[in-house]
Fold:
Amino acid sequence: MKERWKVIEKLLSDEYDIEVQASYEGWGAGYDPKFLPLTEMWAKGEIEDVPEPVKRPSGIAFYLQEVSNKPEEEAINIIRHEIEYLFSTDLYLWRIGQREFYKFGFTPTSFLVLYAVLESIKTDERLIKSHPDSLQTVKKHYKNIFNNLETYYPHHLFAISLLENWLGEGNYQKDTQKFLQEYLNAKSRDAYDIIMEDLFGRYMSHIEKAQDINYVDLLLEEARGKTRVDAHRGRIMTDLLKKLPEHLQEIIVQNKDKRAVDISEADRKEILKSLKAVPDWMRDYLKQMSYINLIERDVEFIRHFLPKTLEVDIEHRGFLSFIIKGWEEQSSSSSQSGFGRSKREKTEEDRLYEKAYGLGKEDFMVYKRMLSDILPHIDALKRKLVKLMPQEEEGWTGKHFYGRRIDTKSLSVEAPLGRGKIYMRRHIPVRKELAFKLLIDISTSMKREDKIQNAIKALLLFSEVIESLKMSFSIDVFSDRVFRLKAFSEDYKSVKWKIVELFNLLGGGTNLEKALIYSYEDLQTFCLKNHIRGCIVVFSDGEPTRGLKGQELKSLIAQIKARIPIIGIGVGTERNYTDYYFEKSAIRIRSISELPTAFTRIIENQARRLLSFQ
Structure:
């Protein structure tokens, strides 16, 4: 079986001149790490004209579980479809089209309902021309989609009608055939212009009908008494339903188990007309709820036609974005941590350096250069923290009934009163300690404005000081995954090489939610076990692209803050959302040169506050 997949990998790698790998984890694609920032900007609609190598993936991973039960030729054509999709589509236009539709007051995803179907058709048109035997695979693929697709919204059905005409099924439409012929023979930008010029007017009317149908669907849903997490929404929708005339309320209740399209068109029109008479704030609220509901329905539809190799995320206001990854992330997915030492042969000098510093000679030189930039700040921070955390020195405490020394200060008070608390005892103070968890963002955006260099300097500043004070600390790094760079139990010297290796791991999105939960649980466990307090320090530059965002992420951070203090430190002026998410415990550094001083100040203040409770 393994030999079979190796043959397929070799066949497709030679055919498309990219790496093709089998995976048990799922579909995936990666781009050249050298061009990753440019590729991300292209996919987000920030730049249109980029060289072809920027658009071209370096490799793809195909999902074994999905193709393992298919005949060999069918499995190969399924993988070819996904490769051809990435080669033929222009991710820049996916974003631009969403913006255009949003300007017209439609959901961004309504553009993708049409565009995803057309781009899928274009991909299969190319595939069939180069491999005629793939026709049956393509038809079988779309037949499975039709069987699993449940939709009755007009703009969805319009997109499906285009697909049916291309397959030669359904009602033959001369105008549609002419449009498809022009679209499939045009280049990406020209094809996009054809949509906006020839099809947008017709398609817009279908979207408007879908909006009207959705208003009625929301009222029917309310009549069914659907259980909601958001009770506030339920109350407002109930009030809105009661604002309608009684005979319309009866129609909605009688048809509550039906869909809006199953109600007579005359009744639907009357309901929609009555909605115009409700208060403006209620009507606006209904529009907002409909906007969200339509996005959910659109996403459910377009997932059948999106490239499987690219992960997607729904951003603010319903914009769909592709998550771009470097190919080294895909190829290293079998490694849990992503860290790996160089496999070059070590010299005797390297071994001596590793024994002394935990690093080979070359890595040590890199480490030393970074360390030299922050050396004065290390000494300054160390002096301040030593004052907050005294060493274990013996002392003498007074006012005891017996001891080895007379407390002269207590003698003059205690003797006249006839009390005997005039002795002093030797006392060794309990050392005050903190445990720190440092979280560093290594996503693609950290490549801009030298952010990663300063993040690593912050890491070195903190690590060197805390190590010299013999305090406990752990380091995690994150992008859309979380890696443990140093566990609490590990010796700092043994992980220094991983810090140098961080420059080779840059890339991917930002999943702050996952990183915070992962790090909080580890720190909380360690603190409870050792009866000490802890603090999380997050060094990140921008808004998350994965997991929780906006108010939901702020709520999560507030919940963690109630248990363990969190400090957020942001560098750079570009896309810096640290103030928004971490609020009062955030520091935003506009100039890179401010980093060491600001980092020193916030750690000093946080340590003083925490230690006051011990």
